């Protein structure tokens, strides 16, 4: 066994002072470059530009050359514009010869929805209603409800673009009733709420005279009720009886022709001359 003095620690100073040379940097792989490969040729593929053209619909090529078509364009633009407009402005915006075509101008002025102001020579669209605020809208709804009808939300919106929002605010305030469509819940008609309640569940009290009259009425017994109805020439309604279903019958239609059985074909002309049940043997053998 070697002595303790013979044991010594290896000297690593030479290795630490002279490290191994670094490996040469590897060429960048295609993965590091995103895997993109350069095309062999200098040509690059052009991407197809997507267009939003719907070829099944005819393109809007303008106001056309027909007088009635040009009149429709001019009236529709004036309807969507809230204020009055000059004739030259309408002609430029709608691209119609309103200021040069006399026939078109006469039809435009004689239109029942066009209002002409000779003082400043402007034209405006005549809407069904002339309100432009919530208070005037409520007054219009009250006037129509007193005559036994409501107002269409569509007609109100055509007269004032913010009418729908104003109607919803009036509905939240309890001033109007609004009927809506079943499909998407859009407002359809609006009515004035004549009976308002200060708190939920409260309303206008019924007059005492009517209450006393209502309580004084008694419902007669069934035999007496039928007798009173008969004396007035009336008849008690009977419960609707369901009609009995008839027996299931076959649908009338073309009758299928009966299938014909295939007849057994036999050689009738050979009957009595040759026995077909035996093998044929020629004569002389």
Automatic annotation (TrEMBL):
<keyword id="KW-0238">DNA-binding</keyword>
<feature type="region of interest" description="Disordered">
    <location>
        <begin position="1"/>
        <end position="49"/>
    </location>
</feature>
<keyword id="KW-0804">Transcription</keyword>
<protein>
    <recommendedName>
        <fullName>Transcription initiation factor IIE subunit beta</fullName>
    </recommendedName>
</protein>
<feature type="region of interest" description="Disordered">
    <location>
        <begin position="237"/>
        <end position="268"/>
    </location>
</feature>
<feature type="compositionally biased region" description="Low complexity">
    <location>
        <begin position="14"/>
        <end position="30"/>
    </location>
</feature>
<keyword id="KW-0805">Transcription regulation</keyword>
<dbReference type="InterPro" id="IPR003166">
    <property type="entry name" value="TFIIE_bsu_DNA-bd"/>
</dbReference>
<dbReference type="GO" id="GO:0003677">
    <property type="term" value="F:DNA binding"/>
</dbReference>
<dbReference type="Pfam" id="PF18121">
    <property type="entry name" value="TFA2_Winged_2"/>
</dbReference>
<feature type="domain" description="TFIIE beta">
    <location>
        <begin position="55"/>
        <end position="132"/>
    </location>
</feature>
<dbReference type="InterPro" id="IPR016656">
    <property type="entry name" value="TFIIE-bsu"/>
</dbReference>
<comment type="subunit">
    <text>Tetramer of two alpha and two beta chains.</text>
</comment>
<comment type="function">
    <text>Recruits TFIIH to the initiation complex and stimulates the RNA polymerase II C-terminal domain kinase and DNA-dependent ATPase activities of TFIIH. Both TFIIH and TFIIE are required for promoter clearance by RNA polymerase.</text>
</comment>
<dbReference type="GO" id="GO:0003743">
    <property type="term" value="F:translation initiation factor activity"/>
</dbReference>
<dbReference type="GO" id="GO:0006367">
    <property type="term" value="P:transcription initiation at RNA polymerase II promoter"/>
</dbReference>
<keyword id="KW-0539">Nucleus</keyword>
<comment type="similarity">
    <text>Belongs to the TFIIE beta subunit family.</text>
</comment>
<feature type="compositionally biased region" description="Basic residues">
    <location>
        <begin position="248"/>
        <end position="262"/>
    </location>
</feature>
<dbReference type="GO" id="GO:0005673">
    <property type="term" value="C:transcription factor TFIIE complex"/>
</dbReference>
<dbReference type="Pfam" id="PF02186">
    <property type="entry name" value="TFIIE_beta"/>
</dbReference>
<keyword id="KW-0396">Initiation factor</keyword>
<dbReference type="GO" id="GO:0001097">
    <property type="term" value="F:TFIIH-class transcription factor complex binding"/>
</dbReference>
<keyword id="KW-0648">Protein biosynthesis</keyword>
<dbReference type="InterPro" id="IPR040501">
    <property type="entry name" value="TFA2_Winged_2"/>
</dbReference>
């Amino acid at each position: 066994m070697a002595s303790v003095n013979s044991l010594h620690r290896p000297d690593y100073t030479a290795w630490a002072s002279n490290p191994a040379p670094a490996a040469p940097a590897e060429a960048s792989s295609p993965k590091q470059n995103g895997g993109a490969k350069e095309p062999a040729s200098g040509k690059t593929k052009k991407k197809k530009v997507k267009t939003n053209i719907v070829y099944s619909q005819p393109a809007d090529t303008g106001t056309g050359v027909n007088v009635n078509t040009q009149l429709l364009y001019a009236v529709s633009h004036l309807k969507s514009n809230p204020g009055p407009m000059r004739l030259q402005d309408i002609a430029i915006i709608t691209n119609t010869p309103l200021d040069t075509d006399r026939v078109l101008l006469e039809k435009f002025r004689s239109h029942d929805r066009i209002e002409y102001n000779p003082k400043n020579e402007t034209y405006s669209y005549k809407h069904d209603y002339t309100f432009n605020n919530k208070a005037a809208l409520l007054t219009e709804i009250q006037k129509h409800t007193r005559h036994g009808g409501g107002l269409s939300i569509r007609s109100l919106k055509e007269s004032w673009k913010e009418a729908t929002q104003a109607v919803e605010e009036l509905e939240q305030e309890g001033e109007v009733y609004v009927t809506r469509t079943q499909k998407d819940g859009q407002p359809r008609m609006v009515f004035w709420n004549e009976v308002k309640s200060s708190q939920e569940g409260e309303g206008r009290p019924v007059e005492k005279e009517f209450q006393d009259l209502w309580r004084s009425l008694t419902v007669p017994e069934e035999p007496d009720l039928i007798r009173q109805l008969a004396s007035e020439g009336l008849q008690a309604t009977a419960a609707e009886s369901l009609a009995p279903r008839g027996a299931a019958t076959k649908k009338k239609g073309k009758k299928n022709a009966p299938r014909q059985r295939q007849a057994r074909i036999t050689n009738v002309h050979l009957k009595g001359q040759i026995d077909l049940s035996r093998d044929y043997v020629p004569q002389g053998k």
